[in-house]
Structure formats: structure tokens, C-alpha cells
Predict the 3D structure of the following.
Amino acid sequence: MNTYQALKTALLGLRANAARSILTILGIVIGIAAIIVVVAIGDSAQSMILGQIGGLGSKTIIIEPGREPQGPSDMTAILSDSLKERDIIALKNKANVPGLKDLTPNVIVPGSVSYQSQTYRAITFGSSAFLSKVLNIQPAEGVFFGDEEIKQHARVAIIGSKVREKLFGLSTAVGENIKIKDKNFRVIGVLPPKGQVSIINVDDVVVIPYTTAQKDLMGINHYNSIMVEANNVEDLARTANDIKLTLRESHGITDPAKDDFHVMTQSDIANSAKTITNLLTWLLISVAAISLVVGGIGIMNIMFVSVTERTREIGLRKALGATDNNILTQFLLEAVLLTAAGGIIGIMLGAGISYIATLILSQVVSMNWTFTFPLSAALIGIGVSTLVGLVFGLYPAYKAAHKNPIEALRYE
């Protein structure tokens, strides 16, 4: 029996029990589809996150308090108060950081904002006009506050488009007073719709002078972060290193292992994001792969049933001259064809689900979430499903090939 005849016989055997064959490969279909969905959405999410990070500009450096987080549960940056005014003064000194073009300290103010009877949980961000330059955005209505408002601890605010919609509806926002922590702030500008840029959702933000946020609202003497712009991309690494040296001197640190701050360039943030998304993707893939094992066990069970049901057929084939290798090849091909078909169906199903999911996510979260078909995952899916057929179909095929032809012919 040549390969073509073995393949034809295997297909006839599967077609004879079409309904059972379809039910048998469900585990493989679900497993491969789950892997395709996880990888496709993971790749799309990674592309979206990297695009948002890139929105901060290639010359931007972020300084955060506390040592660099060692994991999701490391809260040192949130709890640390190491970045203070002395650091701003030291960083602005050209002798210390010659590659620094501009900077702004940032203060996060938790809580809601309100206007008359309307309340909205926005992100209140104490910063400066430098933020608008980094985000490449200017008010669609009104103006941004300047250095004078920062010196005076002015109670003025720039609001995002969604904040304006939730608090004011179709009414004019510029010139009206909103409340932040029970204090009145005059709206002097409204930002156009922009969506998510790095960690900031521009549409949900309220920007106020960082001095007002720090002293008047939070009553603190430290900053939650410092955002720096380098003169050019070529000097980015050197500027980041100068910042580290300057802050160590400002904080009296001689051992870099004891840094109470961490400095991140856009490439550092991008690499961290890649690591996190890749880790989560592989974690979910490993969970989805359990379905493949379950599906493989189902294939093995059904193949054993098939071998038992076709015992007389096996005996007859052997009596007519079929070798053990012919029988082994036939039943092994049946298992491989089953799982390979399951893999192909799973890939098509997973691609369809992924496409629909990205459309829904782009509408729900209002982000540029585009569909990405993971070709490598599809090829791996076909390979893995075929391998599952080989592994789990080998033993039943071996049992079929080594049946005694005389006993097989007597089998009722």
C-alpha cells in the first residue's frame, strides 16, 4: 500500500464516522482558536501600547521616585517621596545636565471634579505648559496657563474633551468654575479629542499648575514624577546618565544600587511594555494549550474505539497481505488528519473571533486597536495540532498494527 492509498483509506475511514470525527476534534479546535485569539489580541495590544508610548516623543525622559519596580507588586515608586524642589534646581543647572532642554514636575491629584450638580472622576494632573508640548496638543478653546500662573499658584484648569462633555454638555466651559477637592478652579482651556497617550488619557484629564496641585490641594513637598525633554535623540542616553549622576549627588547617594529614583527613556518604557505583554501572552497561551492536551486524549480514546470497532477489518486486510506498517500508517494518518483539520478550523475560528474582538474593543475603549493576524502562531498551530495527532495517535495505531490476524477475523 503506497502513501496515496493509505491517505485515501484514512479519509474513507474518517468519512464513515463524520459526526464522531467532528466531535473528536472539538478540543483541538478550541485549543488552537484560543491560542490564535490570545496571540492576535496580545500583538494588537502591544502595537497599540508602543504607539501610545511613542506619542510622548523620542526625546522624552521620565524620572519617577523610588527604585525601579521589580514586579507588579513593587509599590516603592508610589510610596516614595524622593523627588523634590532641590532636584528641579539641580537638573536645570546646565553644568549638571547640558543635554536637558526643558522639564516639568508632575503631581497627581486623586478624586473627582464637579460643576454644579455634575460630578466626574477625571485624572487631575498638576503640570506645566511643557506637558502640551510633549503631548503635541494645544487647547481647542481658550489657552494654556504659563509660568506666571505657576508662580502664583493660580487656580486655573485645562480640561479634556470628555470632561467638558460630562460636566458641561453643550454649554461653554471656558470661564466657568469647577471644583477640585472643594476648591474653585476657573476653566481657561478645553483640549481637543486625542485619546490615550502613554499613561495619560488626554480626553479624561484636568491639567492645573503643579504648584497649586502640590501645595494647595495635596499639601506635600515632593513630586510624583519629572518629565524631561533632551536637546536631541543622539544625546538621549548621555542626558539620562547625567540625570542619574545629578540626582545621586542631590540625594547624597554613592552606591547606584541604593538609588531612590529611576530614570526611563522611551525605549526603556517600550521594552518594559513588550516584556509585560509577552509574558502575559505566553501565560495565556500555556493555559489555552491545556485544551490541546485534553483534545489529544480525546483523539487517543476515539482511535482506540475505532481500532476495536474495525478489528475484523484489520484482520481481513492482514489476511489479504497488508503489513503491520500498512495498518500503522493508515490509523496514524487518520489521527493526524483529524488533528490537522482541527488546527485549520481552529485558526479560521480564532482569526474571526480576534477580528470581531478588536472591532468591539476599539469601540468600547475608544483606542486605535487594530486587528493583527499572527501568521507565526497560525503556522505553529498547524504544526502543534499535527504533532498532537502523531503523539496521541501512535499508540492506538501501534495496537491496531500488532493485532493477530486470526484472532481479529474471529472478533465479533
